[in-house]
Structures are given as structure tokens and as C-alpha cells.
Design brief:
By secondary structure, the protein is α/β, with parallel strands linked by helices. Helix content is about 15%, strand content about 30%. The chain has 3 domains: about 5-95, Elongation Factor Tu (Ef-tu), domain 3 (Beta Barrel), CATH 2.40.30.10; about 110-215, 3-Layer(aba) Sandwich (Rossmann fold); about 230-315, Beta-grasp domain (Ubiquitin-like (UB roll), Roll), CATH 3.10.20.30. The chain has helices spanning about 80-85, 120-135, 150-160, 180, 195-205, 250-255; strands at about 5-20, 20-30, 40-45, 50-55, 65-70, 95, 110-115, 135-145, 165, 190-195, 215, 230-235, 240-245, 275-280, 285, 300, 305, 310-315. The protein has a 5-stranded parallel beta sheet with strand order 9-8-7-10-11, sandwiched between helices. Strand 7, helix 2 (about 120-135) and strand 8 (about 135-145) form a beta-alpha-beta unit. It is globular and about 60 Å long. The mean pLDDT is about 90. It binds FE2/S2 (inorganic) cluster (FES). FE2/S2 (inorganic) cluster (FES) binds near residues 287, 289, 300 and 302. The site of FE2/S2 (inorganic) cluster has 14 residues, from loops.
């Protein structure tokens, strides 16, 4: 994180809003108004375990006096969500990057908002904005069960016939059938956030729609299931130092633990903040940012790894 711009905020509320999902609210120590934000925005938070994680903002972003996020305890947590659940409590201070938006609500005649599980969070502010701007929208919220669906009753009460809440009990036979929504393309924009299978399905169903009308928000780090992490050595030319990157750590985490600062935000290979120069060695590129022409000269250190030892350096060296 860029510490110069980080906001030092206090945890003012920590509330369970569904099984395994905690809502946090953060305020400035002096109660002042925080930087404003648009629907779809997120903040990056330095979690107690040291990893940065991005969370969508739920509340109204006009002159906010607090930031509201919800954090699901991920069973495959690399430490971020687990440390938020277990170690971050009311009264603690936390470093928060000012809001950023990679999922903006563009002007359109109408909207289809699709949220799966915790992916509902960026869509709540979007639905409220559509409602207050008099824009037609439909919100489809899919979850396993009532107990695992944060905010579903509020959404039902607030948006009534504009919202569909669908519970599938984790049964593939009961998943929501989106085909009717996509069969005939129209001018509406689609916003989708949720687990990867849901987003893959929406991608597949919307293949005949104009690409610019379909928007996804994906905070999921690479699952690691398709990759095997092996240890390797990373050398930083300008620092004249080399570090062992263990199986369980990223290059970014390794450099950070040795006091070397690299800009970062998403830590999932999607935002482009953590780019470094690749000087020598072979890399398994796991990001969604670099063009293939850059593979020999750059590396996103939050997710990508050396296939053997590598030498890299900061962008400005
Ligand atoms: S921190 Fe976003 S791509 Fe690495």
C-alpha cells in the first residue's frame, strides 16, 4: 500500500451479518468526513496478518462519515479474511487506502445486477443509486441459504419487486437459470460480482452481448489449485539483496517482510500496482494485467512466481 495516502481509521462496529460474514465499519479518529466514493468502489485494507485485501464499500459514498464493508471468512483464506475476523476488533486502528473504483456504474437505460454470496456488496450501493436516479434495474442475489446471505431481508424490504433472492442450498440442480435474462440482448448494462463459477456462467451466457455492457468485479485471488507453489530465490538488483520466497508466501509478502516497499492494492493480479522489472530468470505469470509481450521484462509480484531463481528490480530503477 502507498502509506503516504493511507487513511488511519478506527473500527467503530463489527457485527455478524450472516454465517461467517462480519460487517466492519471504520471512522476517522476525529469523526471527520472521509473521502467520498461512487457505487462499485472498494477500499484496500492492511489486514492484521500483513496482507492487503480489497473490500467493496456498501454505504452511501457522498460525504461519508464511515466506511462499511463485509468480510467473509474464506475457508481457503491465505490469512487476510481470517485475521480480519479474529484479530480486528472495535477500537483498533487500521490502514485503509482511499476508495478506488474498478467497477463503476456507467450510464445506461437500465441495469441487471447479479450478486453471488458476498459478491452482493458492491451491488447494494448500485441498486440504491439506480433507485434514487429513477433508473430501472433488477437485482438478482444468489446464495446458498438464508443464513449465509448477508443483507437479504433488507434488500427484499427495500427493493421489493426489483429484487430476486434465490437460495440453491448448494445443489447444482437448483442454481438460478439466467438464460431468460440474456437470451435477447438489450441496451441494459450487466454488473456481476460473486464466486468464479457464477461469473464464468454469466460470461458464457452473455457472449452474444456487446462486451462493453457486461462488467465484472473479481477480488478472488488465484485459487492456487491449478498452480503448485515451489520455493525460489528473488534477487533485487538495486538493493543488492536476495530473499528466499517460501511456498506459502508471495514475492510481495517476502519483500514487505524485509522492509522493502512495493506499491500494491488488489494483491490478486488484477490492478497493476505491483509491477516490477524482470531482469533474469523464468516466471510463471499468474496475473491478469500483463500483455504477453511484457512477459520477458515485467512481473506482477503479488501473484507471479519464479520458475527457479529470478532477478527483478523496482520500476524506477
Ligand atoms: S497488487 Fe494488484 S496486481 Fe499486484
Amino acid at each position: 500500500m502507498n502509506e503516504l495516502n493511507d487513511l488511519k481509521l478506527l473500527v467503530s462496529q463489527k457485527t455478524e451479518v450472516a454465517a461467517g460474514i462480519l460487517e466492519f465499519q471504520f471512522v476517522a479518529g476525529d469523526g471527520s468526513v472521509l473521502p467520498s466514493f461512487q457505487p462499485g468502489s472498494h477500499v484496500a485494507i492492511a489486514t492484521p496478518c500483513g496482507a492487503n485485501r480489497q473490500y467493496s464499500l456498501i454505504n452511501d459514498g457522498k460525504e461519508p462519515t464511515f466506511y462499511q464493508i463485509a468480510v467473509k471468512l474464506e475457508p481457503q483464506s491465505r490469512g487476510g479474511s481470517q485475521s480480519m475476523h479474529e484479530q480486528l476488533n472495535v477500537g483498533h486502528s487500521v490502514l485503509v487506502q482511499p476508495p478506488d473504483n474498478s467497477f463503476p456504474l456507467l450510464d445506461a437505460p437500465g441495469y441487471l445486477l447479479i450478486g453471488g454470496g458476498i459478491g452482493i456488496t458492491p451491488l447494494i450501493g448500485m441498486a440504491k443509486t439506480c433507485r434514487s436516479n429513477g433508473k430501472p434495474f433488477r437485482l438478482i442475489y444468489c446464495a446458498r441459504s438464508e443464513g449465509q446471505a448477508a443483507y437479504w431481508e433488507d434488500l427484499k424490504n427495500t427493493f421489493d419487486e426489483s429484487v430476486v433472492i434465490h437460495f440453491d442450498d448448494g445443489d447444482p440442480e437448483k442454481v438460478y437459470d439466467f438464460w431468460d435474462e440474456f437470451m435477447i440482448p438489450n441496451a441494459n448494462h450487466v454488473y456481476c460480482c460473486g464466486p468464479r463459477p457464477l461469473m464464468d456462467e454469466i460470461k458464457a451466457l452473455s457472449g452474444h452481448w456487446p462486451e462493453q455492457q457486461i462488467h465484472f468485479e473479481d477480488f478472488n485471488p488465484q485459487s492456487g489449485l491449478e498452480y503448485v507453489n515451489l520455493p525460489f530465490t528473488v534477487s533485487i538488483k538495486s538493493a543488492g539483496e536476495s530473499f528466499e520466497v517460501h511456498e506459502t508466501a508471495t514475492i510481495l509478502e517476502t519483500l514487505r517482510s524485509h522492509g522493502l516497499r512495493v506499491p500494491s492494492s488488489c494483491e490478486s493480479g488484477t490492478c497493476g500496482s505491483c509491477k516490477m522489472k524482470l531482469l533474469s530468470g523464468s516466471v510463471e505469470h499468474r496475473d491478469f494485467v500483463l500483455e504477453s509481450e511484457e512477459y520477458e521484462s515485467a512481473i506482477m509480484v503479488c501473484v507471479s512466481r519464479g520458475r527457479g531463481n529470478i532477478e527483478i528490480d523496482f520500476e524506477d530503477f
